[in-house]
Amino acid sequence: MRRILCHYSCGAASAVATKLAISKYGKDRVEILNIHLKEEHPDNQRFLKDCEEWFGMKITTVQNEKYNGSIYEVFKQGYLKGIYGAPCTTQLKRKVRAEFQREDDIHIFGYTIEEQQRAIDFEDRNEDLDVDWTLIDAGLSKPDCLALLQDAGIEIPVMYKLGYKNNNCIGCVKGGMGYWNKIREDFPDVFARMAMVEREVDHSINKDPKGAVFLDELDPKRGNMDEEMDIECSFFCQMAKDDLA
């Protein structure tokens, strides 16, 4: 039988999507894949273990060994992000998953009901991939996923508690000015490190109509994270961006 490949990112939505897939297809068909990134919050490992108990299954964890699973190793190439995405997503996620997946896999990942149009757009661009939209079919939203985890007695990841919309790396280059000003408050060491990297590679994460806005020049009052677009950091998102190249 075809394998059901669940892309578990230590996010609430991917966790609930995986749980639904196990209930639908059974443990014998499901493989749960997590790609470890060195810059994720350490609480993610606690969350992963809690989810393993909830799933009643082990999660397979892999990483890009060339870059030691670190975004900063990738950034030494001299490029942080552009209109076609970020190199950390390509190197640390896309290439790793491409090596792991099989041609006939049925993919499960955490697109919620709010992202239904994105799912349609993805299908249009990636007709060769078979995806079961478990959360969308169930009509589940991001808040629903957080509530289901709490109902299951699973403590949500720290990054959600701190007010971040997603559980990505601490200091994601896809974040806007408001996001980075919150990182400045919550994780000043991360902010300082990324500000240094920007200068080393001479490439700013943020821009405005006047040009580059480097982190070490960012006004602490600029930006509003609540009004900024969600940060998407996934294999499938990067594939869609590559179609536009």
Q: Can you characterise this structure?
A:
By secondary structure, this protein is an alpha/beta fold. It has 2 domains: about 5-160 and about 230-245, 3-Layer(aba) Sandwich (Rossmann fold), CATH 3.40.50; about 175-225, no CATH class. Helix content is about 45%, strand content about 10%. It contains 11 helices and 7 strands. It has a 5-stranded parallel β-sheet with strand order 3-2-1-4-5, sandwiched between helices. The longest helix has 14 residues, at about 10-25.
Task: Name the features.
11 helices; disordered C terminus; globular; two-stranded antiparallel ribbon; Rossmann fold; 245 residues; 5-stranded parallel β-sheet
Radius of gyration: 18 Å
**Coarse shape:** globular
pLDDT < 50 runs, ≥5 residues:
234-245
Describe the sheet with the most strands: 5 strands, parallel
Mean pLDDT figure: 91
Which structural class best describes the helix and strand composition? Answer: alpha/beta
CATH architecture title of the largest domain: 3-Layer(aba) Sandwich
Q: What is the CATH C-level name of the largest domain?
A: Alpha Beta
Outline of the structure:
The protein is an alpha/beta fold. It folds into 2 domains: 4-158 and 231-243, Rossmann fold; 177-227, no CATH class.
